[in-house]
Amino acid sequence: MNSKQFIISLASVLIVSNASAQGVQFGVETGINIARLSISPKSAFGADELSSKLGARFGGLLNIGLGKGFSIEPGVVYSRKGIGYSATIYGESIEVQMRYNYIEVPLYVKYNFKGLQFGAGPYIAFTSAASYKGISLDTTVVEKIQITNDPDPDVGGVRPMDAGMNIKAGYIFPMGLFLTTQYGLGFSNTSAGNGLTAKNSVFSFSVGYYFNYKLKNNKEKQQSK
Length: 225
Description:
The protein has 225 residues and is mainly beta.
């Protein structure tokens, strides 16, 4: 099974689970990433200065209640990560943007208290696309970055998978709207080049909505009377 088939199968399971299980809320979210790469050795890109890269994130999730304020939350999220940097090549200043697009599958264990939510858990991510954009005074060059596990230093690609840990905190309003801030730290070396280590780190800010959260809360209030 390839990564696309895996994502489609997982999404189908989430939808079916939402339709049949009790104490489950289906939600959607969208937001922004402020991403960086931790690079070793730091001189590998010939960069004068490394900077964060803004990127989009959006996807679907399930909140599955376990009782006493605890829940688990699997999801499927499109997440753009990467890095920006400036470099001087043959005396010419160049601005570079490295973009890595992932289909991320996180799993959180969450604690919910009066609308406040705190969660942590692992993720795996599949690289769907990667690109290099170089901007100088005279030209703009855009190239695809190869997705590969080949350690050949001349290939300079990105690996097809990443894995790491997310932590997040947020607040959910009575109508089901929620706000979330999150930090994700990659454990895997995403660089396919031999001798280079690159690991993702990203701060995220999202807004989302649970479709049946208000209905669930109303039922719980009626049952408690």
